[in-house]
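To whoever picks this up:

The parser on our side crashed when reading a file containing two proteins. I've narrowed it down to the boundary between the first structure block and the second sequence. Both blocks are reproduced below exactly, byte for byte. First block:
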Amino acid sequence: MTTVKIINKSKHALPNYETSQSAGMDLRANISEPITLNSLERAIVPTGLFIELTDGYEAQIRPRSGLAAKKGITLLNSPGTIDADYRGEIGVILVNLSKDPFVIEDGERIAQMVIAKYEQIQWQPVDTLSDTERGTGGFGSTGVK
């Protein structure tokens, strides 16, 4: 298990895994008063959390499926990436895709965070790429079933 340093300036407990096999931890809004998102409005919602990731790791900020399915609330830059060298507060860019206003309350679970390993690559410029069965087939080229 990897250890991540965290500063919690919020009024809420640290994010945690809700089940033993959860990949993500819920992030909570840390706000002094409710925020109303009208239809198609967006807002950066603070969490009060600051993290120090180990080199080679990122934090991915993803929508919560329940908010997306039931209320039409999602993230604009999904998944949002927090790089290992970022030391600022984690903010979540929420958007309301429903027709109804949505009120964000302090402490509400607004997104989930997944910590993931990554590798940086080095480009190798070439003139051709290897052939595959799919080739250059793009969107929908592999069929519908």
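<<boundary where parser fails>>
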Amino acid sequence: MNENLSLQQRRERAVPRGVASATQVFIDRAENAEMWDVEGNRYIDFAGGIAVLNTGHRNPAVMDAVQHQLDRFTHTAFQVCPYERYVQLCERLNALAPFDGEAKTILFTTGSEATENAVKIARVATGRSAVIAFGGGFHGRTLLASAMTGKVNPYKRGFGPMPGEVYHAPFPTGLNGASIEASMAAMQQMFAADLEPERVAAIIVEPVQGEGGFHVAPPEFLIALRKLCDDHGILLIADEVQSGFARTGTLFAVENSGVQPDMVCMAKSLAGGFPLSGVIGRAEVMDAVEPGGLGGTYAGSPLGCAAALAVLDVIEKDGLCARALAIGQVMKDRLIGWTKAGMPVANVRGLGAMIGFDVVDANGKPDGARCKAVTRAALEKGLIVLSCGTGGEAIRILVPLTADDGLIDEGFAILADALAHLSVSEAA
């Protein structure tokens, strides 16, 4: 019996089916943008642990920083005995905040903790309770985060009543009439029919939707949201959990629009594969919560802080923002070329190296089943790539920014073969 199959059978007996895996490939080791499974098979990684590995698997600088911290201590709980690396990381993030004025940062462990704590802070700072999010948005799997997530299946199905005071407006994807004007009009209708704007604590938005399909929030939309927030005393939260840390060609995706949020949620590539998240916010907003109201036992782990400080060094030293722009343009040009060549590819989109596209049927309509077939065929050929979108219709590319050009070319060749294999298998 092969090892992957044996481990999959053990997984099915030991792990509840509620946690799904995109593949049945069990990884044994990884390096930069390559992984090897327990049977020795090599894979090119275009998933990056779902946007966690912008600096690659086992980046040497990150590993050295973590090893140095391991030799000193692994945990004290910052609420019991604080440590310098937490403070040092917050200082560096405050200096990088995508807004003017004094900033403060608090650290957590997961992306859901970041989004939920941003809402907690906003509620205290404004004295209000309601939150507006967007259809197709993804903000995590814990209960309040699930309520803010704009997709029922599988994130809300069967979990009973969601926390109240969370409202959704359409996100302007530019598809099927989903325009900026329609989204803003929907919010005005919400204010007329459901709640007064003076009850809204925050609007939370992904500058580039992740799970929702890699749709980029148009700058004009973010500008309109900023004005709406300013007009009504609402805080604007940028959820950068998936889009942050050089992926879009800037440290944070919202910087591409020129709009300044009041808070930024971050996680994933912040710590290069180690669990760490946080919220950067305007100092007066962040200080609204009384001592003891925020935190967590593992929040701001010493190992995560050490890794994150090294990540910030790597992004700067290796010019990863510029690298994201360069490889992103190459990937976009190639995908657009595929559309012109008649391959089942449409709606190429993204910022920097956060690139997505729809897999379409013979009539040019996005097709989730076909997309799944493409990811499966790519896996068989040695490429790990993920789907996304409300109907699973989109391929998202999250290759580590440290991958060399040859490896990216090799991955795209496999992806092209997978798309061609789809067409051939359907014709057969």
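After patching the parser it read the second block fine. The two ends are 31 Å apart (CA to CA). The chain has two domains: 3-58+319-427, 62-317.
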